[in-house]
Amino acid sequence: MELNTYQQEAFDYQRKNIETYGKRAWGWTIFYVLCILVGLYALYLQIAKGHGVTGMRDNVVWGLFIVNFIFFIGLSYAGAIIAGILHLSKVTWGKPIIRLAQFMTLISVIVGPIFILLCVGRFDRMHHLFIYPRIQSPLTWDVMAVVTFFAGSVLFLYLALIKDFSVYRDAKLDIPKWKQKLYKILALGYRGAASQKRHLLISQNLMAIIMIPLSIVVASILSWIFGMTLRPGWHSTIFGPYFVLGAVYSGCGLLIVAMWFYRKMYKLDYYFTDRHFKYLGYIMLVLAAGYGYFTFSEYFTGWFGSEKWDSELIHKLFSPAEYGWWTFFANFAGIVLPIAIVAIPATRKPGPITLVAFIMVIAMWIKRYLIIVPTLETTLLPMQDTRAEYVKYAATWPEWALTIAGIATFLLFFTVMSKFVTVVPVSGLEDTHTHHEQHQLQHEHH
Amino acid sequence: MKQEEINDKGRRDFIKTAAIATVAATACGSLACSCSSKKATTGDKVKLLSPNGEIVEIDSAYLKHEEHMAIVSKLEAREGIAGKKFVMVVDLASCKNARSCVSACQKWHYRPKETEWLTVKLLQDSEKAAPYWFPKQCFHCDNPPCVKVCPVDATFKRQDGLVLIDNERCIGCKFCMAACPYSTRVFNWDEPDQPFDIRSLTSNPETGIPAKVGTVEKCDFCPDRAREGLLPPCVEACPNGVFYFGDENEDTVSNGLETVSFSQLIKDRAAYRYQEELGTKPRVYYLPPKDRAFPVEKGYQDADSAIKERFKDYKDLLEAKE
Asked: Considering its fold, how many domains does chain B have in total?
């Protein structure tokens, strides 16, 4: 396929990243694999001894695993929405970051559901979900949603990659035979003919149009697992949009972090410019305001209405003796801080924006914990006639080990994928820089 | 006319019982064989259908009555007992937290220690109100939030009103536990500690045994006993006749000491259903604790130390009135 000079330059600049794996990548890979091995040992204990090795008990039946599930699956939905909008919109600055968003989509929709498997008591019976499905259950809706979404995100990413695969195939890269062959197969004989171009574009546009509403639907379904129960803090009509917004918000933060990281590691300053950080920072600010608004109305109505169970939950969340400090951190670092840093011109720089985005992603993880655990600790009947350790949830080391293993898997996928395809899409690229910026960056580039 | 009806019912019941006995014997045979203890043979050969569908012939000496054998198929266990509508009435005025119900339930279901299907709470409706003991089984709701959310139809509502669990289908997602507003359900976090001969039984939703690791379970109103015309063990064990169990269609409930009209009882004693406002339509009615048979402190003073420990936060409430 023919490349224009700008695309050719982008490819030449990145070809070494896919030609060699590199010492640093190997180092990280080994580290991630070690983390995963520790997680597998924890998993072995959980299978051999039962779920008693976790901190989950009869009252708090869901813990870290479900928190991780919501967290990762939220990142996935966010990636699809962001990539879909950037693909469909005419703005050219967004094109270089689409692939990172799509990576995030696919990798998190693989990692997220693993945590569901860890949470169910009998994963040897997971096929029951397909042989005895009950359509009334929100969990069945979620199974359908996640499976559909997984298929969609594979297609969405793959369609965007076909052109690039044809570039890699034709480039005579210094790579092993199997990899050459794989690129050739994956390129599906794409030569850049007019009809091929047109069909590919139509398919990509269709997938983008499908993925955006699909993400909204599946994120809402995820929220309904909680929203459909009669529990304080969960049984809320705003849970659908609340989860959608929370997902996109945390995903936007992680995208900024990923962008910063690859910019540093692969020296991609020319493609991930300060402008990208600024624009994504603006998006993050708007989402933070929206998320803050939802959070405020959720807590405020609960507190003002002061129904018995709502009051008890609000008390738990805000009392310093219980979750007060966590609630403070989740809302300060998760809402106030990003708004402040992006709003102040002096701190509107890649470094500070990335830092608050990173802290915000952690705060959003804690926020998910605060959505799940305190509600389960607020039972309608008093918790008396039960064992003491059933009253409060405390995650155990196997749960933490598996959480870390999940994060390691997520990062491992990112490492491997960025060595298989270029992080900045080559074929989809248009010249995105202003004349002045280009001059400046090209200077640094060489 | 009425007399005829009753006679007819009796006859039908007899036929049913006979049929059940046959099935039970059939099922037991294969079990007894696998245990293979040496016994004097009688020479009487009985033809039996083995679980894998083969007809086997064994000596009648190897047949033993197994009280916990499921007497219906899994399919029938999902249907329920035709014409019945089970209901329970709990008399809060007579409860003193004697906990015989709890231990009877634990014993009957071979429950591992401290995993209780039946719990006794200490409730106080408001600050000034008098506290009272509140035994709580599964409410077998007519609009059960737990059944609504089960993704695999492992927990289900039967025509006789019972909500049961098939623990061989349950995937252990615990969604039902999160959905039940009454915290009724328990989970087997570890391999349940049960006698060997119980563990080797075939599981059936009507018996609830053997318990399986990684699955959810709860009070089942003992339909296996109801089929034999027996009251649940909690009802029989209660020294104060707190629990009345029966059939709403027949309009009779019994606490083992007296059998009364269900509608009359809930009318006379102003029965209510717990947290009815949730829309769950429970099948358990509570008689308010008016004219108590025992002072509430008695349930605390007489309890052993492990139980006392559970209520340590309520000490003021339970000791002040001494």
From this structure: 2
Nearest C-alpha of chain B: how many angstroms from A320? Answer: 20
Are B17 and B116 within one domain?
Answer: no
d(CA A191, CA A196): 8
Domain assignment present for residue A371? The answer is: yes
Q: Which CATH number belongs to the domain containing residue B232 in this structure?
A: 3.30.70.20
B57 and B92, same structural domain? no
Q: Which two tokens stand for residue A314?
A: 């609000």
Q: Confirm or reject contact between A228 and chain B (CB < 8 A).
A: yes
**Do B161 and B34 fall into the same domain?**
no
Q: CB of A58 within 8 Å of any CB in chain B?
A: yes
pLDDT in tens, A128-177: 999 999 999 999 999 999 999 999 999 999 999 999 999 999 888 888 89
CB atoms B174 and A62 under 8 Å: yes
In a domain, A6, yes or no: no
Q: Output the CA–CA distances (angstroms, integers) from residue A170 to A9, A165, A173, B123, in the order listed.
A: 15, 9, 8, 76
- CA-based angle A213:A215:A218, to the nearest 5? 110
**Size (chain B), residues:** 322
Q: What are residue A298's phi and psi, to 5 degrees?
A: -65, -50
Q: Are B90 and B193 contained in the same domain?
A: yes
In B253-282, the residues whose Cβ lies within 8 Å of chain A are 275, 278, 280
Q: Is residue B279 part of a domain?
A: yes
Contact, B293 vs B275, CB < 8 A?
no
* Within-domain flag for B304: no
Residues of A whose CB is below 8 A from B112:
none
| Domain-embedded: residue A72 | no
pTM, entire model: 0.87
Do the bridges between strand B252-254 and strand B243-247 make them parallel or antiparallel, or are there none, so unpaired?
antiparallel
Question: Tens-digit pLDDT profile for chain A (446 aa)?
Answer: 677 788 888 888 888 888 888 898 999 999 999 999 999 999 999 999 889 899 998 889 999 999 999 999 999 999 999 999 999 987 888 888 999 999 999 999 999 999 999 999 998 999 999 999 999 999 999 999 999 999 999 999 999 999 999 999 988 888 889 999 999 999 999 988 889 989 999 999 999 999 999 999 999 999 999 999 999 999 999 999 999 999 999 999 999 999 999 999 888 888 898 999 999 999 999 999 999 999 999 999 999 998 999 999 999 999 999 999 999 999 999 999 999 999 999 999 999 999 999 999 999 999 999 999 999 999 999 888 666 677 788 899 999 999 999 999 999 999 999 999 999 888 877 655 554 555 565 565 55
Q: Are residues B186 and B232 in the same domain?
A: yes
Over chain A, what is the mean pLDDT? Answer: 91
Q: Is residue B142 a contact partner of residue B161, using CB atoms and an 8 Å limit?
A: yes
Residue B294 belongs to a domain: no
| Residue from A38, A277, A251 nearest A153 by CA | A251
Last residue in a domain, options B23, B45, B66? B66
> Are residues B160 and B112 part of one domain?
yes
Q: Which residue in B259, B210, B209, B205 sits closest to B89, CA to CA?
A: B259
Judge: B183–A56 Cβ closer than 8 Å, yes or no. Answer: no
Mutate to test the interface with A, among B174, B312, B314 (most CBs of A within 10 A): B174
Whole domain around residue A361: which residue ranges? 229-380
DSSP-H helix ranges across A171-307? 177-186, 194-227, 239-265, 274-305
Which domain, by its residues, includes B31?
A: 2-66
Asked whether the beta carbons of residue A51 and residue B114 sit closer than 8 angstroms, the reply is: no
Overall domain count for chain A: 1
Residue B318 lies in a domain: no
Same domain, B168 and B275: yes
Query: What residues of chain A lie within 8 A of the CB of B175, using their CB?
Result: 137-139, 225
ipTM for this prediction: 0.89
Closest CA to A70 of A378, A358, A365, A323: A365
Answer whether A138 sits within 8 Å of B188, measured CB to CB: no
B128 and B253 housed in the same domain? yes
